Design the sequence.
């Protein structure tokens, strides 16, 4: 049981490049979400999904795209990377409201 | 809007002493859940404790306990007998209706030997 896995662990991009951060969970959780963590800002919600085929925007969705074709996978796409997207990105999953969120180990992204 | 506020950006405590981290929140819901998460230098997010708002009894997990004041919308975390391994960022969080967690900005706790 791997829990929540994220790849890659580190990534450096140039401004304007695109990439996909991968997230997978093997706990059959309905909810999955993406957060970014910046110094002094806590974790801010980017996008989330309450089930396969359903996604919605969080607090800071601009510049990011998601899809949820299976229960297990929830990739985050950066369409055209900007230096303001330099951050640590966390994927998380949980059963519906009230249950513990399980987090992946995070991806440190630097955009030059 | 529903928000979470942690008013102490940094705190320190001597080993074996007790420390309390503050959290206030704003919601129009009546039934909800509240969480404290710990993030050590390894960056991994770890659940510390969970409180159900409809329960009057404060949650306790070993050396960690909460003081939940529903009317005041306050949810503080007390760490007793602090240990060096408690050094970490601590985040208060709760879910909006049908969404994942909303986090406070965190409190950086340093335990001093």
Sequence:
């Amino acid at each position: 049981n791997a829990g929540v896995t994220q790849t890659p662990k580190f990534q450096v991009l140039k401004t304007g490049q695109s990439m996909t951060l991968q997230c997978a969970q093997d706990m059959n959780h309905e909810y999955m979400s993406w957060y970014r963590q910046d110094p002094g800002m806590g974790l801010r919600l980017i996008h989330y999904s309450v089930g396969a085929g359903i996604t919605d925007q969080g607090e800071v969705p601009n510049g990011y795209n998601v899809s949820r074709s299976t229960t297990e996978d929830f990739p985050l796409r950066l369409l055209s990377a900007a230096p303001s997207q330099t951050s640590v990105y966390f994927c998380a999953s949980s059963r519906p409201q009230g249950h513990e969120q399980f987090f992946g180990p995070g991806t440190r992204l630097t955009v030059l | 809007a529903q928000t979470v506020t942690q008013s102490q950006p940094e705190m320190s405590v001597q080993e074996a002493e007790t420390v309390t981290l503050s959290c206030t929140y704003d919601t129009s819901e009546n039934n909800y859940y509240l969480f404290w998460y710990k993030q050590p230098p390894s960056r991994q997010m770890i659940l510390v404790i969970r409180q159900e708002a409809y329960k009057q009894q404060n949650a306790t997990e070993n050396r960690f306990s909460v003081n939940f004041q529903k009317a005041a919308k306050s949810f503080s975390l007390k760490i007793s007998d602090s240990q060096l391994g408690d050094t970490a960022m601590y985040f208060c969080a709760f879910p909006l209706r049908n969404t994942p967690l909303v986090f406070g900005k965190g409190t950086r706790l340093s335990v001093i030997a």
In short: Chain B touches chain A through 24 residues (CB under 8 Å). The first strand of chain B starts at residue 3 and ends at 5. The two ends of chain B are 41 Å apart (CA to CA).
